[in-house]
Every structure is written in structure tokens, then in C-alpha cells.
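Database export, one record per block. Field names are fixed; values are copied verbatim from the stored entry.
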Amino acid sequence: MVVLFPIAREREGMRRRILRSVAFTLVATGLALPFAAGFWWSAHGGPSWVGTVSAMAYMTTPVLAAVGFARHDGEPLGVRLALDFTWRRAWLAALWLPLAIAVGAAGLTFLLPGITFDPAMGGMMARLEGAARDAAVAQIAALPQRGAVLVPLILAQGTVAGATVNAVFAYGEEGGWRGWMHTELAPLGFWARALVTGVLWGLWHAPLILQGHNYPEHPVAGVAMMVAVCVGLSGPIAEVRDRTGSAVAAAVFHGVFNGTGGVAVMFAVGGSDLQVGVTGGAGLVVLAVTNVGLAFWRRRQAAEEASFKKEE
């Protein structure tokens, strides 16, 4: 019994942390509901700018929840939200890794049966309506290049935007998930924490996904797909967070992922939103491979660190 008591206390502590994380997600989702309503209004006759502003405001709710929980616990905000700008070499992974995932998902998308590459972006045009389609046509017309040469240009622009403007808004999410929750669930271990965080992060998207965001053809199935994508992303982003000690680096990763992940959707004709790009089946395959590679890399790093300690 003497041995079992510490184990029981440890399990109870982990259970409490998971329940606090669920409560955190519910608070963040509750804060997001008014913005989800604005997104709905915009899609049903309201001004288009309301939808854009609502989607951006929606992203801030995890960090707002994190501020509330940290203040309630009497913890320093900068520490608990991992607001750290200290440069480390691992920050580079926040740039190249999401870009590699986007490129891999795009390449796999065009290998799928029934999906073809259209340099004129006809598939994207067909999916857009009204003012959104007119705006896209105007933006494409203003581009200095046409055809397949646009792909590296869009990826470069998406990486720059992702690491700057996108990252500012992405921190609204990452300050919560890779800031507050990353620390809260640390006792679970790397992979269990990534799983729990990914599930909760994915479910937090549900009020937008059910309205057709990311998955306009399959809004209900899209919720499950979004959860799977978030679970797949949680490991790589958590590794960047651990190696840099910063949720800001995680926000850069998130921003670059968002900025480059749409390239497959832009050029794909055919297939469904459950197949195409980083948020489709192609993306899940690439994320699975990425996590397998990450697992081997972490094992190798642990072995090297253990060997180094023995030599000391």
C-alpha cells in the first residue's frame, strides 16, 4: 500500500490536469461563440468583412482563456504563456517544417486518382462565390506570374506572411495550447500530451467547422477530420515549443502552416475537401510520416543525451 499511494496520487493529479484542460477548452470555446455567430451572419447576408474580423477574433480566445486561468492561479503571464523571443537554432524548424508538410501534402494530393493540377486555379474559382470569387479573380490578375511558376511564389509569400502577420494572430491560439496547456499537461509525457492537446484543440474549431470552414462539402465529418489534423500537428509543434521554450515559435510554425497549406486547394481540380491538401487525407498521411520521423528522432536524441551523461 505504501507503494500504491504515490501512484494513486500521481494518477489523481494527472486526472485533475486533464479536467482543467477540458474546462480551459470550454471557456475558450464559450468566448469564441460570439465570433462564430459573426462568421455565420457574414455567410448569411451580413458584410463580408464581419466574417474576416470574426475569424481573426476567434483565434484570440485560447490566449484570453489562458490569461484568465494564469491569473486565477497567481502565475506570471509571460512564463505560463511562454512569451519568449530568445533566439535559438530550433526556431528555424518553425519555418521549414510546416513548409515541408504543406509541400508534401500538395504533392500527394496530385497523386490521388481523380485530382489534377490546374495552373489557372479553375478548381478554386469553382468553389468560390460572389464577392469572394471576384476578389480572388482580381488578386490573381494582379500577380506578376501565371501558371505553375506561381507555386513557389505563393509558398514564399505564405512563409513570409506566416512568420510575421499570421504569427501574430496564431499566437492567440498558441499562447493557450502551447503556452498554458503545454505546461498544464507536461506530466502526461510528450505523446500523451500531444494527443490530449490535439483533441481539445481540434474540438475548439467545431463552431466554425460546422459552418463549412475548411470543409464546406462535409461540415460534420470535417469536425472529426479537423481533430485528426490537430492531433497530427500537435507533436511537431510541441517539439518546436520544447526546443525553443517559446509559444511564439509555435505561433510562427502555425502561421507558416496556415500561410502555405492552401496551395494544394488553390490548384486542385477534383477530389473533395476530405482529400485535398494539408487539412485533407493527403495532409494526414504526411503528418503521420512526420510523427513517425519525429518519434525516431526523439529516440535518437534521448540516446545521445544518455550517452553524453554517462561519459560525464
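Remark 1: The chain has a mean pLDDT of 88.
Remark 2: DSSP finds 15 helices and two strands in the chain.
End of record.
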